[in-house]
Every structure is written in C-alpha cells, then in structure tokens.
Design goal:
homodimer; 267 residues; alpha/beta; Rossmann fold; 2 domains; four-stranded parallel sheet; 10 helices; elongated
Chain lengths: 267, 267
C-alpha cells in the first residue's frame, strides 16, 4: 500500500513567524487529517541563512510548501530561488494595500510582533498584570479599571479568556467567580461591581460540559458531579437574569471564540 | 490643509477573525503612522449578514479595505459583491495548497480557532493551568512535567512568556524566579530542577531596562533602583554561567519574540 507522503510546511520569516504560522494553520484546517511536518524558521535576516534553508529543502522530503512573511523586500525577492512552492504573503498583498492607501509600503523587519510602539506594548503587559491580580476575584480594590468583568461558575472559561484578552489586546479583563454560596435566593451583585454595568458579562455553560471539564480536574469529586454542576448552572442563570447581566453561551466555544465574541459585544 | 482620510479596515470572517486581524495588522506594520479605523466582524455565516455589512460600507467613509478569511466557499464567492477592495486569503492561496497536497480543500467554517481537535484543545487549557500553578516557582511538586522552565530576575518577562507559550502552543511552561538571596556565592541549582537540564533557559535583561520596568511598578523603590537591578543582573549572570544554563538576551524583545526564540531553541 502506498501511503501518500506526509507534506512538509516551512514557516519562514524575518520576524517571529507568528503571522506565517497563524495563516498556514488556518489554511490547513481545510485539509483535514493531513498532519504535515512543521518547520518553524523565524528571524531569518540574511540571504545566506535563507540559502542554507533552501539547500536543506532540496534534499528534504517532498511534497513541501513554504509560507513566508518577509517584510524585507530584498529577502522577499530572494524567495524566487526557493525550490518548493511559496505562499508569499507580503508580495501577494502589499501592492493591493499600496493602491488603497495611496502610498508605498516600507520594508522594515520585525515590526509585527516586536515591541514596536512601546506605550502600546507596556499597556499589554500592564493589562496582563491586572488580569493576574484580578483572577478569581482576588483583588477588588481597583476593579473599577476593568474594561470587562467575566462572571461564571468555576471552570466556565473565565481565566483563560481574560488572559487571552489581556495578552493579545491589552484589555483590562477581570473575572469574578460565582460560587454557590453567593447565589442563594435574593443575592445581589457585590457592591464593588455595581458601578460596572455595561462591562459585566456572564459565561453560561451546560452542566454536562461543565461536569466533563471538572471531572478531568478532580475525578469523582462532588465538585465534578452532574448534580452539583446542574445546581450551580441553574443558580447562576437565575442570578444573571435577576441582575440583568448579558450572558454568553460558551458550551461549544474555544477561548478564542469567547474572546472574539466578548470583543464584538463590547465594541 | 487637506489631511488624507483615515483608512477603514474591515476584518470579515465566518470564524473568530483572528487570522484576518493578525494578517491585516502584520501587513499594516509596513505603513507606519496610518492609524486606520478597525472594524471587526467575526462569525458572519450568511449572505444576508454579509450584504448588510456591504450596505454600510457603501455609505461609510473611504478609503476602505476588507481583509477576509471565509472558509465557506459560498460566502467567499459572495465577496465579489463587496464595494471595496478585498484581500481574500482563502481564495488567493487555497488553490496553491490544493496543488501541493494533491487534494481539494474542504469548505468548513470555524475550524481555525474553534475547539476543533478536543484533545489538543484540552491540552492547551491543561498547559495554561500548569503554568498558572507554576508561576513564580509556586508549586514544585510536578515541575518534572515542565517542557521548559524559564529562569530570571523579577520582571524579566518570565510570566507573560510562559502564559503565551501555554495558551498558544499548549506548552507546559514553568518559571522559576531567581531572587538575590538565591544567588550568593556558590549557590547551586535547586534540587527540583536538577533533572530538567536541557529544559532550563535563563532570561537575561540589561539593568537599565529592568530598572525602567520596575520603576513603573514600584516608583522610587529600592527594588527599582539601578544599583539593585545591576546587582541582581550580575548575580544571575554568574549563576547561569556556573550552572551551564543557556541564556536568552531579552532586553529588546517582546513576549512574542521571546516565545518564538524559546520554541526555536527547544525544537
């Protein structure tokens, strides 16, 4: 039986290669079960380095594909020498942007994921520190600075989503866990959160999915039992309804999908 | 004086829009000072929704540009009706991939940043939990599971980098802070880390940059003073040298750049 050869995907960049990898992985989602070999080659800043990579490709396994993001125009031009097909992001699209914006593109490496604008970078790190300090309702002193406060039961995805929002978008994201004791009968919003209406969002998850997630953390525990999960999900549902806090159904969503919906909702 | 109009960039996707945004922001780094208006339109799953967006574009400010990532071929075809220029990632590159891989692309929305492969997704969340539990040397019990342990002085970038590695690559990343008391004279590696050689990496930062970062956290403190930062940087340098731990110079690197170098170093 002749198995088709496993394709090799080379990610070449004069920067981190993050954009090349993001794009390549996105395109490859449309070829399920392909399982390519990945070759990350970031910070390629000379023709010699590039030629060295090409040389290995010539003798390496086939089929192979390059996804490249070179901001440097000279290195980009040198991609013509590449022995395997190249998806060349900058060459293919910069011209289109030049026409729309009415000016020439620059040719400067390392801007996309470098420190770049220092103030913007510092803000992202500051946001991350804020989010870590306000994880699980830890600190409440300066919670007024939060741009969004995610509420939900334990393991509904609050912490990863907040970290993602802070890390990638410099968003001051706090989370406030709702524990069963918080939600008996006529419980009201904690006073520290009352001034933040419009920034509060409840994450709602199905008891079955919640039990599954908790089970892998604490197998066989009461915490992970379906009965307990049902009680908590019901209680938070009532609480969010009573307090008129908008809810986001996250049962089948990834962290990225939740983050994207949170951003769209706040925009 | 006639200021050029601020361009509008629309990010359209039947998924999260993360790939579209990453690509657009990368391309736009080559047009410094452009300051476009950003319009994130994720989870567009119908022609009606798309037509509604086009309608607003027709009467909206110009110039405008669309960066689109539609996995769904029907929606992609409908981009022909778009009233402004479109960078259409899938249309432009899928064909090239089809040729290399020798098979047709599928046309399924929401795969790129969805939960997708559940095992792989769960691993990322597990990695994030591991990293949070091992932040600042907190837990050491199961540190043997770490794929990488970043060592460095306080505020050298260990925590954000570990979180980035865990979140985006499902990497079990722990960090171990080196405090001045740890590094007097003939200090040796803590026993819990001795079995992890090959996975240890020291982050090295200049005292000036370190003082700058600490100053914004604790202004005027001894902790942020240049003298203190110099002492700590010197001590860790000696420690890493004595213990033969490879070092990564991070003074001018962003979290993404450090993460990319860590991955390349471990590959």
């Amino acid at each position: 039986m002749n198995e088709p050869a496993r394709p090799q995907v080379y990610l070449l960049s004069d920067g981190t290669g993050i954009t090349a990898e993001t794009l390549a992985r996105t395109l490859l989602t449309q070829f399920e079960g392909l399982h390519p070999g990945w070759h990350l080659r970031p910070f390629v800043r000379s023709q010699e380095h590039l030629e060295d990579i090409f040389e290995r490709m010539r003798t390496g396994p086939q089929p192979a594909l390059v996804v490249a993001t070179f901001a440097d125009a000279t290195l980009r031009a040198y991609l013509r020498e590449c022995p395997v097909p190249v998806v060349d992001i900058f060459s293919d699209h910069l011209q289109q942007l030049e026409q729309v914006f009415g000016r020439k593109a620059e040719s400067v490496s390392g801007r996309a994921h470098g420190i770049g604008d220092m103030a913007r970078y510092d803000r992202r790190i500051e946001a991350l520190n804020f989010t870590l300090a306000h994880d699980d309702g830890l600190a409440t002193g300066d919670i007024g600075h939060a741009e969004v406060v995610l509420m939900g039961v334990s393991r509904s995805g609050k912490t990863p989503t907040c970290l993602y929002l802070a890390m990638n978008y410099g968003m001051f994201a706090a989370n406030y866990p709702l524990i069963p004791e918080d939600m008996t009968g006529d419980t009201r919003l904690p006073s520290s959160l009352r001034g933040l209406r419009g920034r509060l969002l409840g994450l709602v998850i199905s008891p079955e999915r919640l039990a599954h997630i908790r089970e892998s953390r604490r197998p066989g525990s009461r915490y992970a039992s379906l009965v307990q999960c049902r009680d908590e999900c019901l209680a938070i549902d009532e609480f969010l309804y009573r307090e008129h806090i908008p809810r986001l159904e996250v049962t089948h969503l990834s962290v990225e999908e939740i983050a994207s919906r949170v951003r769209a909702q706040l925009a």
